[in-house]
Amino acid sequence: MKTNSRYLADVLITAVAPAIWGSTYFVTTSFLPQGYPLTVAMLRALPAGLLLLLIVRKLPRGVWWGRAFILGALNFSFFWAMLFVSAYRLPGGVAATVGAVQPLIVIALSRLFLGKPIRYLAVVAGLIGMSGVALLVLTPNAALDPVGVAAGLAGAVSMAFGTVLSRHWEPPVSSLTFTSWQLTAGGILLVPVAFVLEPGLPMPTAANILGIAHLGLIGAAFTYLLWFRGLSRIEPSAAASLGFLSPVVATLLGWLALGQSLTPAQIAGFAMVLASVWLSQRTMMPLRPIRPAASPEPASRPV
């Protein structure tokens, strides 16, 4: 019972991250200037990463320099870039449904990199979750754009690799330090891309500053700290299934804050997503708790 309670607590703490990510669309459309997705992504990642880096005062050493930039690209730079391409070329519902394939990709990659067996119920849970997301966000006249679909799939694959490799490589530092490395690396990689592909930002308003602060401090630093902490304690496929909560929160915010209506199909989608998350966690619940691996020697040095 103690094992189950500890695991449930880890799941609930980790679930806070994708729940907060569900507010990204509302914050972006309500508080930020439109047409600067890569610049906003850079401002979301880099200041938050540098702030955390100042707190932990540790830099990677040896192989962890390369790994930090690889994970920063997979979890932030490339993932966010593909996410924005998908969002621009596809209706929001189609983009979210394409991205919902990520938990199934994580299941396959966990088998490849971590040697985890592919569990039938976990696959079923992933399919139920995808169907629930489709009911939540798809509209009858949604159109498919090949480039947008490819970008959405590429983004899902990118974060799936980032999720599994974050566990596979077992960082020899705290979750706070690990988060600071990845956010900083991801933000650095976004700087030249945003500079070349987008015009300069207009003079920010108070609302713009508030939106960026929320996305950086809450939507990036805080949430990814919880996310990487969770990846060290629960199975990657179980963590990935929690991502289904993001469109649930986004839909609820649209209903509560933007006056959007809820249809019977969306209510059914809510139920299917929650059932999917429950089934996935039930399937992946370990008999004994997962503990983060201890490092035999430090892998970082003071700044």
TrEMBL record:
Keywords in alphabetical order: Membrane, Transmembrane, Transmembrane helix
Location of this chain's protein in the cell: Membrane
GO cellular component, one term: membrane
Entries under Pfam families matching the protein: EamA (PF00892)
Topological type in the membrane: Multi-pass membrane protein
Domain EamA: 12-137, 148-279
Transmembrane domains' residue ranges: 7-28, 34-56, 68-88, 94-114, 121-140, 146-166, 178-197, 209-227, 239-258, 264-281
Family: Belongs to the EamA transporter family.
Protein name as it appears in the record: Transporter, permease protein (Related to regulator protein pecM)
Organism in which the protein naturally occurs: Rhizobium etli (strain ATCC 51251 / DSM 11541 / JCM 21823 / NBRC 15573 / CFN 42)
Lineage: Bacteria, Pseudomonadati, Pseudomonadota, Alphaproteobacteria, Hyphomicrobiales
